[in-house]
Every structure is written in structure tokens, then in C-alpha cells.
Specification:
With 258 residues, the protein is mainly α. It contains eleven helices and five strands.
């Protein structure tokens, strides 16, 4: 038999991970290409082949602090884009919980493309404002904060104690203060008149705030007030997770997004 060589496309290295009690044997290439964390890990000096973790089932790379379901959701997205990795297309995550797992791990391990995919998908899944703000703070998604806060201060219902606890009372108090700043845009005429019992004409300025039921604020935009109060730049509204490279300790579990 003559000299052999590796096929450029159909010869791939695999890597074995252990998550909880489950072994995953997957292509190494997407981890190396998509994640700076795994890329740096694979560049570390290694010893003898029998001492290297990840090459077989007996010495897998142990991934601590995550669940096998969370890892499975990330793999669905990571291996979905190219059939060449697995020979078949993977189904994508389906619900908010599964996509939150993708956001969590892609943030933890600096999978930039998968993080952007998770952010874009979760944006369209109708997460309530409180849940969106909570996720935005945990996973450093600035683009969600102003939009979700704006929705929260425009709604008729006040912030309740449970929501204040989830938001943090400082944030809740700031949002409550914004809810009181109802700014009525001047109409064609700002004033109306009524007759006092004494016969004099009294003029009321409808652009002033008055005591009474909260007016409908759904059409109002509190973004400028929120931006000033929380110290956000205008660029933050369009910024979807450019705070890459957070420490692993900064990324926490957040299962409650309702």
C-alpha cells in the first residue's frame, strides 16, 4: 500500500465531552472555528496521546456547571448550518427555554454567531418585558433593555412587588418614577375652557400632569427619559451583545422569563 493522505473535506476530527452522565462525541471543527474559548483550549500544550482529554470515551472533556439538555440545544444550532458535520440537518431549538440555553452557553463560551442567532430568535418569541429585562441583564444584551423598559412603563398596570423583586428595587423605583412622567404632546389647541359657578371663564392647560387615573400611555415613547436615567447611549439600542468575552462567573442561570 502506498502513501496515504487525509481527504480535505471528508476526514474530520471528533471530540468527546461529558456533561452530567452523558457522553457527546461531536465534530471538533465547529468548536474550533466558532468559539474563541474552545479554540484557545485546543491550542494549549498537550502531553502523550493517551493523556489528552476528549479523544475517547475513557477520557472525555468534562463540562461542569451545565446540563446535558442545555448542551444539546447549543449543538442543534452549532451543527445545524452544515450537513457536512453530521451528514444530516439538525432540528433547531423550539421554545424560549431552549433558546435561552443557547444564549447562555454561547455567551459563556464566546460562540458569537450562535449568540446573535439566539438573540434574534428570542426577540421574536414574545417574552414579556420583565422576562426580557431579566435576560438582558444576565446575558448582557443591551439591545433588549430600552425596548423592554419602554413597554413596561407604557402599560396601564403598575409594577408589583414580585416584579420589583426580580428587577431589583433600584431599577423598579427608577421605572416607577418614569411612569409618572406622562408627557402629553400638544394638540391643535392645548387649552379648553369651562364656566365657573361665578360666571368667570377658567382655562385648563391639557399639557400639564393632573391627579387622576393614569392616561393611556401606549402611544408614548419614554426612550429619551430612560436613556438619560439609566445612562445608556443611543448606540446601545442597536447593539446586540457586543460585550463578548465575559467571565464565566458573570453568566448565571435564568430559568424564569415569564
Amino acid at each position: 500500500m502506498g502513501e496515504t493522505h487525509k481527504h480535505a473535506r471528508f476526514y474530520m476530527n471528533t471530540i468527546t465531552f461529558l456533561v452530567e452522565d452523558c457522553l457527546f462525541k461531536v465534530p471538533r471543527d465547529p468548536f474550533e472555528k466558532e468559539s474563541t474559548v474552545f479554540r484557545d483550549m485546543f491550542l494549549l500544550p498537550v502531553g502523550e496521546p493517551h493523556e489528552v482529554e476528549g479523544l475517547n470515551d475513557e477520557m472525555p472533556i468534562r463540562l461542569e456547571g451545565i446540563t446535558k439538555d442545555e448542551f444539546e440545544q447549543l449543538l442543534k444550532v452549532l451543527l445545524h448550518r452544515s450537513r457536512s458535520y453530521t451528514g444530516q440537518s439538525q432540528e433547531l431549538p423550539g421554545d424560549v427555554e431552549q433558546w435561552t440555553s443557547v444564549l447562555k452557553l454561547s455567551t459563556l463560551w464566546n460562540f458569537s454567531t450562535q449568540r446573535q442567532t439566539a438573540i434574534a430568535t428570542l426577540t421574536g418569541l414574545g417574552i414579556p418585558p420583565i422576562g426580557m429585562i431579566t435576560l438582558a441583564n444576565v446575558y448582557h444584551v443591551k439591545a433588549w433593555l430600552l425596548s423592554a423598559m419602554n413597554d413596561l412603563v407604557r402599560r396601564p398596570e403598575p409594577i408589583n412587588m414580585g416584579e420589583a423583586s426580580r428587577l431589583g428595587f433600584e431599577t423598579a423605583l427608577k421605572l416607577a418614577s418614569v411612569r409618572e412622567k406622562i408627557a402629553l404632546h400638544p394638540a391643535r389647541c392645548n387649552n379648553f375652557k369651562r364656566r365657573c359657578w361665578c360666571g368667570r371663564s377658567i382655562v385648563h392647560d391639557t399639557s400639564k400632569i393632573f391627579v387622576g387615573p393614569r392616561p393611556d400611555a401606549q402611544a408614548l415613547d419614554f426612550t429619551p427619559i430612560l436613556r438619560t436615567l439609566f445612562g445608556y447611549d443611543e448606540d446601545d439600542e442597536g447593539e446586540e451583545g457586543e460585550d463578548e468575552g465575559e467571565d464565566e462567573d458573570d453568566v448565571e442561570d435564568e430559568d424564569d422569563v415569564d
